[in-house]
Amino acid sequence: MKKYDVIVIGSGAGLDILDMAVEHGMKTALIDRGPTGGTCLNAGCIPSKMLIFPADRVMEIREASRLGISAEVSSIDFGAIMRRMHQVVNDDRAGIRRYLENSSELEFYDGTGEFIAPYTLQVGDQKLKAEKIFIAAGTRPLLPPIKGLDTVEYLNNESLLNLTHAPESLIIIGGGYVGVEFAHFFEAMGTEVTVLEMQSTILPGEEPEISEVVTRALGARMTLLTSAEVTATGQAADGRIEVSYRQSGASDVKTISAEKLLVAAGRQSNADLLKVDKGGIKQDPNGFINVDEYLETNLKGIYAVGDINGRELFTHTGHAEAAVAAANGLHGQREKMDYKASPHAVFTHPQVASVGLSQSAAAKEYKIMIGRADYKDTALGTAMMNEDGFFKVILQRETGRILGAHVVGPWASVLIQEVINAMAVDGGLNHIASGIHIHPALSEVVLKALSNAVVVED
Ligand SMILES: Cc1cc2nc3c(=O)[nH]c(=O)nc-3n(C[C@H](O)[C@H](O)[C@H](O)COP(=O)(O)OP(=O)(O)OC[C@H]3O[C@@H](n4cnc5c(N)ncnc54)[C@H](O)[C@@H]3O)c2cc1C
Ligand SMILES: NC(=O)c1ccc[n+]([C@@H]2O[C@H](COP(=O)([O-])OP(=O)(O)OC[C@H]3O[C@@H](n4cnc5c(N)ncnc54)[C@H](O)[C@@H]3O)[C@@H](O)[C@H]2O)c1
Hints:
Domain Pyridine nucleotide-disulphide oxidoreductase dimerisation: 343-449
Bound molecules: flavin-adenine dinucleotide, nicotinamide-adenine-dinucleotide
Family: Belongs to the class-I pyridine nucleotide-disulfide oxidoreductase family.
Domain FAD/NAD(P)-binding: 4-321
Keywords: Disulfide bond, FAD, Flavoprotein, NAD, Oxidoreductase, Redox-active center
Cofactor: FAD
CATH class of the largest domain: Alpha Beta
């Protein structure tokens, strides 16, 4: 049995904690089954955005005609786009691996860890023990209960990265984050795309008016079927994938087919691979690890951060949680994880970004004011001839504190940042307005939305 001060499981957000433990001279082990660097680097944020950036350029070229520029995409080297993505991912992964394998300050266990008792893990034939354990073992693609799915060759966010040509047609199950980001990418690459979403709208977690804008924009480029639950899949003799779905209210089942199928139906916790139940660690009914506001599990000294605690499945949140868990677990502090200004962005076309409460959630808890400005209300938005983009803020009526903000349109993920910063310090209009805004920049839409805030009657 090898004894450590600290064991970290997972090389995504877990690496932050590993670094801090090593910096403090603690005897530290990392267990990771790979690919090194975790989901974000290998099959999530990085490869998807390496692909979406060229897709955004395709859309700029297609949309240039409304500015009087006549241009068209004459050809796309899909292979080159994929190779560039692999190069970036492989280089980064190799760099992390070199550090893990060569560092004399930590011990790297390259394999699947399993709890065999509280505070005790096994990797292969090695047994490890520590009083401080940080679980950052992430999630994997969820396989929805669809008849026949195990008999067809479907893609997920990992396997699609191995495509060498853009499929002629693609059906995507799920109109959430992964679904709408890859729908944008593949359509821009020339694929005929159909998205099936069982909720009544795509991006069901966003403000309804934001989902509407995205639906209009993507709907002009592809088929979007909402309230459509996929019930069965099969493979036709010619290799095409058949997908059967029922739309709510309809009694008949319809079947469509395509060259490829992408399953983008959510994520499943990796806590089962880690056998956390044998370690006495409690999970919720969906298998995510229960943590308190300090990110500690039911066992003292064992923390769970990132996707595996099921709170928010975003890289930036995982890193913020890692900082809190490290402060508590390594430095003996009592810091609570604060999600109030935890944002997200969806890199589809148009981009979506959001932070804090939705309008309906805010109205349940507070008396509110709403401010909205369209991109076209600003000089640059007018120059861009942007018709649909807007920025919405939700304020607490009595205090003017920002409770939430929601954006759809170009650079949404960047525009929202100043609101995130203001929210992090419980700020309002004054926090945003105290900085002079460059004219004529798109950031004026943020200031305009806040200045337009009006009382919403209960
Ligand atoms: C297609 C896609 C695009 C995304 N885009 C974005 C984005 O743009 N922005 C954003 O913020 N988020 C994005 N996300 C979400 C983001 O990737 C995740 O929230 C983040 O990677 C989770 O990090 P983590 O450290 O919790 O887990 P992971 O990065 O998944 O790391 C877990 C590690 O633990 C290892 N592991 C698991 N079980 C064991 C075990 N038993 N023993 C040893 N090792 C184990 C795994 O192999 C893995 O290396 C995206 C996700 C997907 C799927
Ligand atoms: N830009 C980003 O930050 C980003 C990008 C991609 C993924 N992510 C993270 O990864 C997570 C997983 O993404 P995701 O898109 O796989 O999950 P998701 O939960 O966002 O969306 C899955 C969708 O699939 C639908 N669905 C499930 N079963 C279905 C069926 N049988 N028929 C039709 N529709 C069905 C669900 O209703 C849901 O809307 C996200 O929640 C997010 O946290 C983040």
